[in-house]
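Hi support team,

I submitted a single chain yesterday and got back a structure, but I'm not sure I'm reading the token output correctly. Could someone confirm the output below corresponds to the sequence I sent? I've pasted both exactly as they appear in my results page.

Thanks,
R.
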Amino acid sequence: MSLDAGAAVDLLRLFLGAALVLSSLEWLRLGAEWRPPSYWAPPDDRARWAVVVALRLLAGVGVALGPWPGVVLPAALLAAATSLALMVRVRWGLEGADQMQFVLSAALALAAAVPEPGVQRAFLAFAATLSVAAYTTAGVMKAGMAAWRDGSLLAALLRTRQFGHPWMARLVVPGRTAPAFGWMVIVAESAFPLALLGGEAGALAFCAAALGFHVTTAFVMGLNVFPWAFAAPLPAVVFWAGELRRLLVQ
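Hi R., thanks for writing in. Yes, this is the structure output for that exact sequence:
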């Protein structure tokens, strides 16, 4: 059974909304736990920014569960605006998941503003292209870095306090197993465009592997928002893989 455009958008909204809610909860926790000077809001400004993050959380609920397009349009606009405000306010420490949430929220707002089938398909094409570009760029950039090719950078990351994990640190050994793990990541990310050429079944396999990778990094490195943020455009990849297959066999 093929995935239609409406179902793909609904799945995208669900994952994106979950990412917005989870990341907003993490922002609120940081604001509550960090003592002056907080890296995301000074003490006299913290209450105002807590309101911004709380609005972002509510926007995430609207994006995920709100009726299309009546509630989704203002919710996506609010999610994009508050995400951009946080990105401008916080000069460092942001992740790729933060940019993914902002871009998808803004694009979703545009799609909801003109709720026509053609616009919906164009939005899914944009989301699929964004997903493919994100993985491919990451893979190509890693391939150009000797520290990724020999696995030394990955091994070093797994030994840090912030992103490390004792079990994985013992598994990824510099000069021994680390190169294999480094090339595994490089090849998997660089090959992701092939997801669009294998039909829905092939795309599902690639997307399942990508989602498994992000779940693993969430467990190992504590990147809890990544599985939700990067899962959001994957239904668009599956949808357009099916569409391209149908166009090619006609």
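A quick pointer for reading it: Residues 34-39 have pLDDT under 50 and may be disordered. Let us know if anything else looks off.

Best,
Support desk
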